[in-house]
Amino acid sequence: MKAVRPRLLPTIFVLLFAAAVASAGTLQGTVINRSTGKPVPGTDVDLLSPTGGMALLASVKSDAQGNFTASNDAIGSVPVLIRVTYQDVGFNTFAPPGRPNVEVEVFNVTKDPKTINVESHVVIFQPRGDKLIGAEEYAVKNTSNPPSAFFRTEGNFDFDIPDKGSLQNVTATSTLGMDVPQASIDKGKGRYAIAYAFRPGDTNIRLSYELPYPNNAATVKLPAAYNGMRLLLVAPPGMTLTGDGVTAAGQEQGMNVFLHDPISTKSALTVSVSGVPSPQAADAGGQQGQEGNSRTEGAGQQVSLAPPRIDDLKWPLLGGLVALFALGALLLSRKQVVVASVAGPSVAAAGNPKKGAKGKRQGASVESLQETVNASLDSLKDEIFRLELRKQAGTISDQDYAREKSRVEKLLRDLVRG
Question: What phi, psi does 189 have (nearest 5°)?
Fold first, then answer.
């Protein structure tokens, strides 16, 4: 094993480095219409830098086969947002650093509101001085067949905020996994809308607002914009939350969870909120932020303190808690990267002459090792990509950004050392 690794690792990393250098500055891709399964010729393709203030890196058109090639010195070293305009709608795709080939998906556009279904609604309250911060998340699903995107320029997703509320921000998160800020359309009397192209699959709409919180108490009226939504209310321990039909449902991630049956459109739920988080709740929130998703991302993990009836709502709840991360209150969206050891069983087997033909075994181990290294490097590149986007979006503090970046860099050094 000791004889194999010194020769093997430099060769692999030289090849990987050479491939990265060769692709630096150039990005190739294909625009595919998933509604028809056919390539899209002659469409505008813009490459933007999310970490550079959305600066335009290149602007090209797809050819007759839907292919495009764009060049810029920054491509290959920074994340790239690829925006394709199709049927007057912008479709975005992210390309992490070092990924020279991408496939950009677009869809036929429909104005039919039945294309989407709003499945759940999470509301989180968090005091901040004399203000009460409200963070909400709507889980939206598009199951259209054939697949199509729902969009209206005048606004195709409505939402309400409570009386005396001041809207702070609205974002949309699709399968791309990145919160994209949205411009709000003020319709008056606390109702707003966004014009967003809902792709097939799941989309989360997140918003936040401020409410007056004099003497640490407030009565909040939550209007319903859609029928049949499962409703979860969340508040830190130490706070009191009451309302007709509101039932306590234990804790999740150190936060008190409350349930309410779906309410009909144009009706509202009135809740009374009072108090401030207990010191224990604040400490727990900090510890959870440091522990990250090592405790929250296991798909088989059960809700420990909440009754079984909300177990199926666990993931919408966790998604809703991420909205508080955008407010700087909780850090619940970290993802641990598990780096496979490059000195795995295949390498050991390759160095053992008792396990068969040595040359054949070494060839298999080289292939296995290269796959492991490539997978680990891809994971690290994706991790760096998400981290930089979170910094650009302002959803991570400078201190946490520095700590996370140091962690990822250490993983990269450990991987290179083997």
Answer: 60, 40
* Residues 215/129, Cβ–Cβ less than 8 Å: no
Backbone angles phi, psi at 149, to 5 degrees: -105, 135
What would the two tokens of residue 185 be?
């359309």
CA-nearest of 81, 119, 93, 75 to 34 is 93
Helix (H) or strand (E) run with residue 23 in it: helix 4-23
Q: How many CA atoms lie within 13 Å of 64's alpha carbon, on the beta-carbon side? A: 0
Its pTM stands at 0.65
Owner of token pair 């839907």:
66
Query: Would strands 268-275 and 239-242 be described as parallel, antiparallel, or unpaired?
Result: antiparallel
The Cα–Cα gap between 183 and 94 comes to 20
Topology given in CATH for the domain delimited by 25-106: Immunoglobulin-like (2.60.40)
Tens-digit pLDDT profile for residues 307-322: 333 344 444 444 444 4
Phi-psi region of 284 (alpha: psi -120 to 50; beta: other; left: phi over 0): alpha
Distances (CA, A) of 306 to 248, 294, 312: 9, 19, 11
Candidates 2.60.120, 2.60.40, 3.30.200, 3.30.1380; CATH matching 113-326: 2.60.40
- The two tokens of residue 279 are 């010191």
Q: Which residues contact 179 (CB under 8 A, 6 or more apart)?
A: 171, 172, 173, 206, 326, 393, 395
For 11, 45, 106, 115, the CA distances from 109, given in Å and listed in that order, are: 48, 18, 9, 10
Decide which of 301 and 119 is more confident.
119
Task: Tell me the per-residue pLDDT of 36-51, one tens digit each, with 9 for 90 and over.
Answer: 999 999 999 999 988 7
Burial class (CB in 10 A: 0-12, 13-18, 19+), 206: buried
Q: Beta partners for 171?
A: 181, 206
The domain ranges of the chain are: 25-106, 113-326, 345-417
- The CA-atom distances, in angstroms, between 53 and each of 46, 247, 327, 381, 392 are 14, 45, 21, 20, 8
Pair of tokens at residue 139: 């889980």
Domains 25-106 and 113-326 equal at CATH topology level: yes
**296 is written with which tokens?**
């929250």
Nearest to 125 by CA among 230, 220, 223, 253: 220
